[in-house]
Each structure stands twice: as structure tokens, then as C-alpha cells.
Amino acid sequence: MIVDVSLESLLTIALVAAATAVDAKPHSVPVVLRPTHHYSHAGHGPSTQASFHPITSLPDTPVPSWTLRAVPTTIYRPRSLQGVHNAPWDPTESLGPDIEDRHTLSQLARISGNAYALPGQKNWYDVDSAWNLSFPFGWEDCKIGFRGHVFLSSDNNTAILSIKGTTLQGPTSKKDKYNDNLLFSCCCARVDFSWVFSTVCDCFSGHWTCDNKCLTKALIEDSLFYSVGMNLVKNLTLMYPNANVWLVGHSLGGALASLLGTTFGFPAVAFGSPGERLAAHRLRLPMPPLSNVSGLPLSPVTHVYHNADPIPQGACTGFGSPCTSAGYALETRCHLGKSIVYDTVGKLGWHVSVKNHPIKELILNVLEREHEWEEGRDVPLAVEESDCIVRTPSSNGLKSPRTDCA
User: Fold this and answer.
1) Please, which domain of life does this record's source organism belong to (predicted)?
2) Cβ–Cβ under 8 Å, residues 373 and 382
């Protein structure tokens, strides 16, 4: 059920309409965003509706802000956002995040990172002094665990939804782990002793085979976070039907932002996220038209990660790996949309390690590092992962060098 919130009660932000010319790319505009909502859940289960509530603060309290840049973007969107699975797709012009702007990427990463904690906690990521105040959101109900911020412009034309990723130890950890293993494992996350008697689904057929129909059914029925996210985005679009909606998140949160962005046709930026293309296929997500060049869906998603982080590369697997030892089956590697991959191994001499996965490493040591990552570019070019496919035997019996499990 949507909460009736008067616009006067919201802490709003200014959408600055001054355009600046940028060579070889569309004009970009500055956007200043402040948090306006937190959300909570009434009831439990996949059909749970998310409710939005205005953030309140004391008089004279400074309001945090994020300065971003946006560019005109053509994306494909279902004609009906309330019936996305049966609607035709139409090209739509809207403002999307300027993914070639280093400052914008770092600010979106900070927005994503601070979804994990309350101010003052040890895993709170420092921000510029102007924004050192933040507001709690979604902490009142840890039984579901889906948490996030909503940021809204004063004219209701721009909104950002930030989604929390996996917390290893905390009240949402069990739900986080369940969704990780359901979405990103090859088959029901049979990775260690903890899942032998209670797997996330019962689709393993023996002899290293998996019942894909069973797995699709399990994902559609049991992927709680995605179901809650669907309802949340629908409520947001009903409240602000004309807003440009962006979605962001880190790790699991980024993958959920990508899946939801693909479903609704909203720009999404995912930081350090596992490959979600297989999950999208198994969830039977409605997909935008295919690219004439790559043959992949024209998903409005940008993934941002570096090659010393094994999680987005599906490389934290196998006996003895830290992910498997902790009971996580993060086995997929193929992403929707385009990917910006920083070469921290070649450029900085980093070693691949799960210790490089926290968003703090990405923010402080990659995104905000003064470095020429590619010739003349401080942000690598975003490209489709066209060489990463769901695993199928080729005509000569060999497999693609970059594959996801089928």
C-alpha cells in the first residue's frame, strides 16, 4: 500500500538545468541530490508491499547532498510499468547518469556504500564534509532485509533508489546469503556441508546435472529480494510517474539494481556485482530488444568493477576458496548491459583476492585514484561482455573461454 506523503513534508533537492557541452558525447547537466525517503515493509513474504516515508531532521540540520552529472539517454522501457511482463517495449528519452564522469561514478558508489551502515559505525564510508550527515532507512524490519535510500528532486523529475548488498555478519546476513546463493549459483548452491541438508532449492538431479525448469520455478517463487524490489519500484513509479528513475547498489545490491533496472527500463549502475545475466534468464525477465551488433539485450545497466575482485568475475569458487568456505556459491560471471572494468592487476600490480571486494576499496583506491586507466581516459570505456555466454557446447565440442554455468 502506498503511503500518502505530502510534498511539503519532503526534504527536496534542486535539479539544476544548466547544460554544459562535452566533446563527442551528449550535453551533460549537473544534478544535486539529497535523501528524501526511507522505506519499510508491512507484512512478510514475496508479495510484501514497500511503504515510503519522508525523512525528517531537526531544524537547522545541514542536509547532505550528492552532485552528479546526467546525460540524455535513449533506453527501451515497457509501455506499462505496472504490467511489465506483457507490455511491448518503446524507445524512451530520459536523463541517465554520466558514466564517463569519474566524479559521478564515485558519488554513486558512495551512495551505494553507505547503504550498509548507520553513521558512526566502523563500516561507514567517509564522504565530503558537506554530506557527513545521513539518515537511517529500512532498519526497523530486519526480517526481510531489503534496505535502501530514495533521493528525489524538488520538481519530482529525478529519483535514485540505492539498494544494500550482502552483509556478512548482521541481522540481514541470512537473507542476504540465501538470495546470493539462489541468484548466483549454478544449481542450488551445493558448496559446503551447511547446505547438504538444507539447500536453497531442490533442483539438483545428480550426476552434476540440474533441472532448469525446477530452478526457474524456485527463482520466481523464492527470490524474495527481487520480488520485494519489484513492488518497491512499482510504488515509486506510482508516486512519481514522470520521474527519471536510477538504481544503484554494490555486490548483491548492484545485481538487484540491474535486474530491476532491466525489468522496468530504468538506468542502473552496479558496483562489484556477481554476474546476473543467468539469473535474469532463469527469472524469465522481460527483456528489451537485442543489439544489432552483439545480439545481447539493450539493457540500461552499467557494471563497474576491477579485475582484482574475484566476485564479479565468478572467480571465487572451488574447494578452498574463501567464498565456498563461507558457504557462498557466487559462480556466475556474465553481466547484463555494459561493463567498466578497471585493470588494477596490470596497472597497479594488485593480486586477485576477495579482500578487494568491499566497496571501500573500489571507491578510495580505484574510482577516486588519479590515474589514466586507458589512453586519454580516467574512466575505462564501457563495453558489452559479448564474449561471455551461457555455457553451450560448440560444434567442435569446446566451450567458450568465458562462460556461465547452464
Assistant:
1) Eukaryota
2) no
Count Cβ neighbours within 10 Å for each residue of 179-199 and write b for 16 or more, e otherwise: bbbbbbbbbbbebeeebeeeb
The pLDDT of residue 63 is above 70 = no
Confidence of residue 9 (pLDDT cuts 50, 70, 90): very low
Half-sphere exposure of 273 (CA within 13 A, CB side): 37
Query: Could you tell me how far CA 139 lies from the centroid of its own chain?
Result: 19
pLDDT digits (tens, 9 = 90+) for 198-243: 566 667 666 556 666 776 666 666 556 788 888 888 888 888 888 8
Catalytic residue among 251, 258, 273, 299: 251
Domain boundaries, the chain: 7-176+228-404
pTM of the model: 0.80
- Nearest-10 Cα torsion for 296, 302, 305, 310: -40
Q: How far apart are CA 320 and CA 150, in angstroms?
A: 39
End-to-end C-alpha distance for the chain, whole angstroms: 38
* Longest CA–CA separation in the chain, Å: 70
Q: Is 162 a catalytic residue?
A: no
Grid cell listed for 181 = 546463493
